[in-house]
Amino acid sequence: MHKFRLARRIAAVLFLTCGALAAQNFTDIKPSPQQLEWQDLEFGVIIHFGTNTFLDREWGDGTADPKVFNPTNFDPEQWMRAIKAAGATYVVFVAKHHDGFCLWPTEQTNYSVKSSPWQNGQGDVVRQVSDAARKYGLKFGVYLSPWDRHEPKYQNSAEYDDYYIAELGELASNYGNLVEWWLDGAGSGGHVYNFPRFIENLRMYQPNTLVFADAALFEYGDTRWVGNEEGTIPYENWNVLDRHGYLRWRPVEADTPLHKAHWFWHPNDEGSLKTVEELLSTYDNTVGHGGQWMLGLAPDRRGLLPDADVKRLEEFGAAVRKRYGDNLIAKDHIRNPSSDAALDGDPDTFWSAPAGSHHAILEVNFPHPVTFDRSMLMEWLNDGQHVEHYRIEAWDGKGWKRLVEGHAIGHKKIDSFPSTTTMRVRLNILSSSSETRIREFQLFSGSDR
């Protein structure tokens, strides 16, 4: 009897000890290799095209006649050329929106391109878009709306889950490797989705695909929605999300359309097209806040991106290259073997502060005065996100002057500040949870202003 009580006490102590050891902090969580690769993509596009395009709608109700879908000059390669010019690296295509109309010849319903006059009902939009994306070196992903306002099976949760999973299987097994699976949570109409089953089936076909989902779908997603469609990631941005005390690495993706408040094409809509300056601001407030930017594009009834949209994408790409294409540090700093891995313009190398340190300084010296007003930092995240407080400082001849201060770096942090001229600048890590590792420290002049 005494031995039994002793065993129970030992078991209780072990349980409490193991529980304490298992307790985690934000800085303990590490990303998967797939998440790291995805975060390096930084900028993607999501493309909306379907019956809504031909009916001047944003939200289809599932009653559109498939015969309205008939683009006269469908050319996804034209889309990809504009997307590449903008600097994007991947494409997510809306294979089925909430109206239920399928842009591939699914075997699950006739409510698809099979019933349209386009290419005599023999066409496959998803196939042609995925082929075009890969031809131009862009990764490809899919959006398959769980909400379906056309399919009769939607009224029965179990039957519709079978239907959705069958469509998922077609898309996940027939169109190559998918970089991202967009799991939109819009709408439900009382339907309770079997998300665990959805993801289990997806993983059988696509084990490396990252699932985008609302933060509420915490356990099903690999990336998370930012919470708005304005293209703004609030700072400070940490990659780890806490739901009810359980932590996961869930980097942020911010989606926003090229046309204000419009995801689908609409006639006479040139006035809603965002300016280059608005797009640059969005870039700085998404990618520059350590997140992913997903820009919404919409082909017109011809099956082409409108000329004004193509021009704006080209202008934006040129503006980004002008603003961030001339890294003053990599071009002209005095070489220092101990720190050059963070100063060489190569994000595949990184500088590491001394092991176990919680404070460090990375100093850059120039052979002559340089003038700059913008900086970019990248943290090496393989071991987690650790920088908690930093400053960028410039030597003014008498002491170190603070230019900017922040409390998180993460994948990438872009800062701007008054124009400064100096021969010495430094990144001062005031606090980090463990030794800091920096992939890149870059400076730029404000020649675009």
Short descriptors:
alpha/beta; six-stranded antiparallel β-sheet; 26% strand; 2 domains; TIM Barrel; 10 helices; Jelly Rolls; 449 residues
| Distance linking N and C termini | 82 Å
Enumerate the spans where pLDDT stays under 50 for 5 or more consecutive residues.
1-21
Name the shape in a single word.
Answer: globular
Rg for CA atoms: 25 Å
CATH class of the largest domain: Alpha Beta
Number of DSSP strand runs: 16
CATH superfamily of the largest domain: Glycosidases
Q: Strand-residue fraction?
A: 25-35%
Number of helices: 10
What structural class do helix, strand and pairing data support?
alpha/beta
Average pLDDT number:
93
Strand order of the largest sheet: 1-2-3-4-5-6-9-10
* Second CATH tier, the architecture of the largest domain: Alpha-Beta Barrel
CATH topology group of the largest domain: TIM Barrel
Helical fraction: 25-40%
Largest sheet: 8 strands, parallel, barrel
Number of domains: 2
Order of helices and strands: HHEHHEHEHEHEEEEEHEHHEEEEEE
Description:
This protein is an alpha/beta fold and 449 residues long. It has two domains: 295 residues, TIM Barrel, CATH 3.20.20.80; 117 residues, Galactose-binding domain-like (Jelly Rolls, Sandwich). Helices cover 27% and strands 26% of the residues. The protein has ten helices and 16 strands. Strands 1-2-3-4-5-6-9-10 form an eight-stranded parallel barrel, surrounded by four helices. Strands 11-16-12-15-13-14 form a six-stranded antiparallel β-sheet. The protein has a two-stranded antiparallel sheet with strand order 7-8. α4 packs parallel to α9, α6 runs parallel beside α7 and α8 packs across α9. The N terminus is likely disordered.
